[in-house]
Amino acid sequence: MDFPLARQHFFQEIHQPDAQIDLAKAALYIAQEEYPQLDIEEYLNALDTMAAEVREQLPSEQYPLRIIQTVNRYLYDDLGFSGNTTSYYDPRNSFLNDVIERRTGIPITLSLVYLEVTKRIDFPMLGVGMPGHFLIRPNIQQMEIFVDPFHRGEVLFPEDCQDKLSQIYAQPVKLESSFLDAVTHRQFLARMLTNLKFAYLQKEELAKALAAVERILLLFPDIPIEIRDRGLLYYQLGNWNAAINDLQTYLAKVPQASDAPVIRRLLNQLGSNS
């Protein structure tokens, strides 16, 4: 199968040691499948410019909280970035170029802008994949503060994260320490693509949802649920041989899955012997 040039560049970017993956480039390669004429360098330069302007505003005493305050003032007051609460599932919220241009996005893409700016001013931060809401934190040992880029860079402590988690799920949820672990670059990109996948499923753009799943599986080839979803999308798009292969693989990996009876019935309809 011939993949678009953007997919090939994405593949090359992610097939190197995790710490060497350039998140901004990889995210722009994701966007480039939607916008084939997208100029990657233009948006990398935009991030460079943002960082240069933040650097000019940094106080002489660069304590972590003062740096965060400066970045917040620049991104949210000067540039007007904000969380997109009105059209959360708009696919454009998952494309870094759109987020930079439109000054709005979802937690993970706003986090990416924040991470890229702080990386360029030598204040590295890490992504935190809390369930239901993406956060970031300074890459400083023993410093337990978190930043919520979706809510104007609000600074949170662990107890605040507990409250936010319960608000998200509208019921008490115990904050496990693992919820605040830093994510790898591959995990970050997979979460971005998962958001894009669901945005396209909501719009019933199945071929584009399939493209998102394919890229998740480039990052993590053995995730059973993504193999299943790729199979179901193949089925809906009429590629039945590929659907049978993926659905059989899914059942082999998780034969006791709660949806296994449904998948087996579908395979029987497709004429498979599973």
Write up what this structure looks like.
Helices cover 57% and strands 7% of the residues. The chain is mainly α and 274 residues long. The chain folds into two domains: 176 residues, no CATH class; 48 residues, no CATH class. The strands form three sheets. The chain has a two-stranded parallel ribbon. The protein starts with a helix and ends in a 5-residue tail after the last helix.
Q: Termini, distance in Å? A: 26 Å
Strand order of the largest sheet: 1-2
Which blocks of ≥5 consecutive residues have pLDDT under 50? none
How many DSSP H or I helices?
12
Give the helix/strand class: mainly alpha
Q: Rough shape?
A: globular
The overall strand count is 6
* Secondary-structure element pattern, one letter each: HHHHEHEHEEEEHHHHHH
Task: Spell out the key features of this protein.
two-stranded antiparallel ribbon; 2 domains; 274 residues; 12 helices; mainly alpha; two-stranded parallel sheet
Topology:
Blueprint: H1 5-14, H2 23-34, H3 40-57, H4 64-78, E1 82-83, H5 96-102, E2 104-105, H6 107-120, E3 125-128, E4 135-138, E5 146-148, E6 154-156, H7 158-169, H8 185-202, H9 206-219, H10 224-236, H11 240-253, H12 260-269
Parallel strand pairs: 1-2
Antiparallel strand pairs: 3-4, 5-6
